[in-house]
Write a structure and sequence with these properties.
Elements lengths: L4 H11 L11 H11 L3 H8 L3 H29 L2 E9 L2 E2 L2 E6 L5 H23 L20 H6 L2 E4 L5 E4 L5 E3 L3 E4 L13 E8 L2 E10 L2 H17 L4 H7 L3 H4 E6 L2 E2 L5 E6 L3 E6 L9 E2 L8 E6 L15 E6 L7 H4 L1 E3 L3 E13 L27 H17 L23 H13 L5 H4 L5 E13 L6 H12 L12 E20 L3 H16 L3 H39 L26 H5 L22 H4 L5 H8 L1
Parallel strand pairs: 7-9, 18-20
Antiparallel strand pairs: 1-20, 2-14, 3-13, 3-16, 4-5, 4-8, 5-6, 8-9, 10-11, 10-15, 12-13, 15-20, 16-17, 18-19
């Protein structure tokens, strides 16, 4: 049967009604409109499904899909700042690194003897008191001038002590008398003799100059370590007072240290070395420092094409108490790096040929937010005292030196001077030794904050070293080689060289493979957005337009409805309050808005049948009665020029 004309007209009008979703009066109606019109299928199935079980299943599936999307997107965000490591190997001509060489003994003992005479005398007295050494039986190879006792008072302030069975009773080597010692005990060795051992413990006491009762006892399991540490403590105090010019003249010159030199098969000399003065190792010499703007390179690997030098060590002029080993110390580093030879230097034996093969590696890490490294060190709040490119060691040493100046009022001798500071010595800073040891203890325990402030450099170069040693010179060639080397030395020495005074060093590339280790972002922005789109499409059949739709409905429209309701409540409360205060009855204007003035209909769209049906009726007003029809308005020719086709069908039917 045919459809009634009235239903067809109603259906046609409903199809032409404007969309009322974003202007829905309540959140429930807004959500229903969203579910019916959204591009995501799950929400629509929740509304149109019949039956509670089927609707519950769709709710469960939709919520599960949303949970999976949130979980997967969170994983994508967490992995966005991860990095992968790639290793690239290149075969090419390589720049040769800088090679810094130092004699283990910093200064010629014969040149510094007058400054150290008092310290050496007190050291010999301690050896005689504690171990029964006498001048005749002592293995010290030269006598020390007695001189004037100008420093006796200073050495009595910090004497060597012998502790008996870990008790607080100590023997002072000046008088041999026992006295009670109070203070905290700090063991400077990892292996400490137990209290049941019959051996005595050697150490020294440091007290606060401002508070004599605040003392620290530093003990050692070995007398050798105790004497050396005590000697170095006073040695730094003395060296800090000697002008730099005198120390440079008292150390080894390039002619003293270098006997022969070859690089890449060609002869070289002292002009290829740059001198710099190290506080702990005296004059050191750097080959290929790049100061003249030229950096040497090599195109062939192997020991024949690297650096070959013969070093003159001169063991006879060593300080017997300061150093107990013989040889040289070297470090391979970049031209822009400071050579921390005291930390990572490699020792070279005498009477031996030491071959050091190198592998070159360049590394680069990603900076923030991928890792906590620094590009140039400018973002680190620590002043660089070394005038070299940033490194973690430079930062740590500079940080400690700054803390030393702030806490103790002077700078530690082994590190560069900050601006306006001077090195510590007992005459000007009587409390510096106690302050230094206390501060260094905090530094080791990471209580100064330096380890937290300083960061690794993002890019650095590294030369991995492989060391091998052979006896040199051999027994059959020793005689003629030493004669020739003595002749090469010329009139600079008046004796035949001994093989224990010489060291042969070879530094070379084992191969020309440059390894480049770099970090690369695992995810880029394009990949991240693609992964997001894949997750949204897989679980919710959703796109970017769908995401914008969700933001519009769930945030903008929902917030608008809530704010509109709150505004209406606040306005109604205010009007009621004013009416109660004035005592006037409710006015017609205060009643709820009707018709087109109703907030539901305040919209850019025309009112619809649905909104008209939802208009509230005025309070205390009778229902409107239907007025009698005005038959003149029923004339169809005034509204329609011709009969509608629907009515024609109905008439024919």
């Amino acid at each position: 049967g045919a459809v009634a004309p009235g239903k067809k007209i109603t259906a046609r009008i409903k199809r032409t009604l404007p969309v009322r979703g974003p202007q829905a009066p309540t959140l429930s109606e807004l959500m229903r409109w969203y579910c019916l019109n959204t591009n995501t299928h799950g929400c629509r199935r929740i509304v149109v499904s019949r039956g509670r079980l089927r609707r519950f299943i769709w709710i469960l599936l939709t919520l599960s899909a949303v949970g999976l999307i949130l979980w997967q997107c969170a994983e994508l965000l967490l992995n966005y700042y991860s990095a992968s490591v790639s290793v690239t190997v290149q075969f090419q001509k390589l720049p040769f690194p800088a090679v810094t060489i130092c004699n283990i003994n910093p200064y010629k003992y014969s040149s510094m003897k007058e400054y150290l005479s008092e310290l050496d005398k007190e050291t010999k007295k301690a050896l005689e008191t504690f171990y029964g050494f006498s001048e005749g039986k002592s293995k010290v190879r030269r006598s020390v001038d007695e001189g004037n006792s100008t420093g006796s008072e200073f050495f009595r302030q910090i004497p060597l002590l012998k502790f008996e069975d870990f008790s607080k009773t100590a023997t002072v080597f000046y008088s041999g008398q026992k006295r009670k010692i109070e203070g905290s005990v700090f063991h400077k060795d990892s292996s400490i003799v137990n209290s049941g051992d019959s051996n005595d413990i050697i150490g020294f006491q440091l007290c606060d100059a401002n508070n004599s009762s605040d003392c620290a006892l530093y003990t050692f399991s070995s007398g050798v370590n105790a004497i050396q540490e005590w000697y170095k403590l006073h040695y730094m105090n003395i060296m800090a007072q000697i002008p730099l010019e005198i120390k440079e003249k008292s150390s080894y010159s390039a002619d003293d240290l270098l006997l022969t030199c070859f690089f890449d098969g060609l002869s070289c000399d002292k002009r290829h070395f740059t001198r710099f003065h190290h506080p702990l190792y005296g004059n050191c010499y750097t080959f290929n420092s790049g100061e003249n703007g030229t950096i040497l390179s090599t195109s062939t690997g192997g020991s024949e094409y690297g650096l070959q030098v013969v070093l003159y060590i001169d063991e006879a002029d060593y300080n017997p108490f300061l150093v107990t080993s013989t040889g040289a110390k070297i470090i391979v580093h970049d031209q822009n790096e400071y050579p921390f030879i005291e930390d990572i230097g490699t020792e070279i034996e005498t009477a031996a040929a030491t071959s050091i093969g190198m592998h070159f590696t360049r590394s680069r890490k990603l900076s923030k937010p991928y890792s906590d490294c620094t590009e140039t060190g400018d973002d680190i709040p620590v002043e660089n005292l070394y005038n070299k490119s940033y490194s973690l060691q430079i930062c740590l040493h500079s940080c400690f030196q700054k803390a030393m100046v702030d806490s103790c009022g002077c700078a530690q001798y082994a590190q560069p001077l900050p601006a306006g500071a001077e090195y510590c010595n007992y005459k000007k800073n009587p409390n510096w030794m106690y302050c230094y040891y206390r501060l260094h203890e905090k530094f080791v325990k990471e209580q100064l904050g330096c380890q937290q402030i300083c960061k690794d450099a993002c890019s650095f170069k590294e030369w991995a070293l492989t060391t091998s040693i052979a006896q040199w010179p051999s027994a059959v060639s020793e005689d003629w080689m030493l004669r020739v080397l003595s002749w090469d030395k010329g009139q600079k020495i008046n004796k035949k060289l001994n093989k224990t005074d010489l060291a042969n060093l070879m530094v070379f590339y084992k191969d020309l493979n440059e390894r480049f280790i770099s970090e690369n972002p695992t995810n880029t922005l394009v990949i991240l957005l693609s992964n997001f789109g894949g997750q949204l499409g897989l679980w919710m059949s959703c796109s970017v337009v769908c995401v914008i739709e969700i933001i519009e409905v769930f945030f903008i429209d929902s917030l608008s409805i809530i704010m509109r309701h709150q505004w209406q409540k606040a306005k109604k409360w205010w009007n009621d309050r004013k009416r109660d205060q004035s005592g006037k009855p409710a006015q017609a204007g205060d009643l709820e808005r009707q018709g087109h003035n109703n907030p539901v209909c305040i919209d850019e769209d025309l009112p619809t049948f649905n909104t008209a049906l939802r208009l509230p009726l005025p309070q205390d007003s009778p229902l409107p009665r239907t007025p009698p029809p005005n038959y003149s308005t029923l004339r169809l020719e005034s509204a329609f020029t011709e009969q509608l086709p629907d009515t024609l069908e109905a008439g024919q039917h």
